[in-house]
Amino acid sequence: MKISGQNKLPGEIIAIKMGDVECQVTVKSGENRIVSVITRDSAEDMGLEIGDQVVALIKSSEVMIMK
Fold first, then answer.
1. pLDDT at position 36
2. What pTM value is reported for the model?
3. pLDDT attached to residue 2
């Protein structure tokens, strides 16, 4: 599969919080944790489970840098 996004962070799902409509997925990538909110339907269609190896793809018009 090809995709235009360049900010790809591989990681492991460490938490899933299912709501009625949305699902909060927490991914550990190295020392970092990334939290994503997706639709419940998408999470169920993908069969997401804790321990799954996934890629967090960050697509944004603005990314801040801190030093």
1. 95
2. 0.87
3. 82
Q: Where are the domains of the chain?
A: 7-58
* Best CATH choice for the domain 7-58 from the list 3.20.20.450, 3.40.50.150, 2.40.50.100, 1.10.760.10: 2.40.50.100
34: number of Cβ within 10 Å? 14
Alpha helices in 1-67 (DSSP H): 40-46
The backbone torsions φ and ψ at residue 64, rounded to the nearest 5 degrees and listed phi first, read -90, 145
Condensed to tens digits (0 to 9), the pLDDT of residues 24-55 reads 999 999 999 999 999 999 999 999 999 999 99
DSSP string, the chain: ---S--EEEEEEEEEEEE-SSEEEEEEEETTEEEEEEEEHHHHHHHT--TT-EEEEEE--S------
